């Protein structure tokens, strides 16, 4: 059974940093999409970053500030968030799914989700 269990998050001042962790289990297949999303009330889920076979793609809103990484030994996905801004507070979720040779990793490809963790930024 595939599971993603998150930790990290919390509250930080603007300009500060946080690191989110997502321990994966059961994800034995290759060519998988791994990513992070965030959601605020009354808004849809926003894609932040995708990693596929070591290649990464970032949303413009976080490019240069957030970094995704995966520790194979620990089966853990990370999101390092630096230079946090007032517009970054949200519920952050890790996700995984099967890479599509035709479509890549659109949101619809993600089928396994972490439980979410709240990030708050104070000014």
Account of the 3D structure:
By secondary structure, the chain is mostly beta strands. The chain has strands at residues 3-8, 10-13, 18-25, 32-39, 46-52, 55-58, 66-71, 76-81, 90-98, 110-113, 117-122. The protein contains no helices and 11 strands. The strands form 2 sheets. Strands 2, 4, 5, 6, 9, 10 and 11 form a 7-stranded mixed beta sheet that branches. The radius of gyration is 14 Å and the shape is globular.
Summarize the main sheet: 7 strands, mixed
C-alpha Rg, in Å? 14 Å
Average pLDDT value? 93
Structural class: mainly beta
Report the count of strand segments. Answer: 11
Estimate what percentage of residues fall within beta strands: over 45%
Pattern of helices and strands: EEEEEEEEEEE
Number of helices: 0
* Uncertain spans: none
Shape: globular
Work out the helicity level.
Answer: under 10%
In whole angstroms, how far apart are the ends? 41 Å
Which labels suit this protein?
0% helix; 123 residues; 11 strands; seven-stranded mixed sheet; globular; four-stranded antiparallel sheet; mainly beta; 55% strand
Q: How would you summarize this macromolecular structure in one to three sentences?
A:
This protein is mainly β and 123 residues long. The protein has strands spanning 3-8, 10-13, 18-25, 32-39, 46-52, 55-58, 66-71, 76-81, 90-98, 110-113, 117-122. Strands 2, 4, 5, 6, 9, 10 and 11 form a 7-stranded mixed beta sheet that branches. A 4-stranded antiparallel beta sheet has the order 1-3-8-7, with no helix packed on it.
């Amino acid at each position: 059974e595939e599971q993603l269990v998150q930790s990290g998050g919390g509250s930080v001042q603007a300009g500060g940093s946080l690191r989110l962790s997502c321990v994966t289990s059961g994800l034995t297949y290759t060519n998988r999409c791994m990513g992070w999303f965030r959601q605020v009330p009354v808004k849809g889920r926003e894609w932040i970053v995708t990693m596929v076979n070591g290649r990464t793609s970032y949303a413009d809103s976080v490019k240069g500030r957030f970094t995704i990484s995966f520790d194979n030994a620990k089966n853990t996905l990370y999101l390092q968030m630096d230079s946090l801004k007032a517009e970054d507070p949200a519920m952050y979720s890790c996700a995984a799914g099967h890479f599509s040779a035709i479509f890549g990793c659109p949101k619809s490809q993600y089928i396994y989700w972490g439980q979410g963790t709240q990030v708050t930024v104070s000014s």
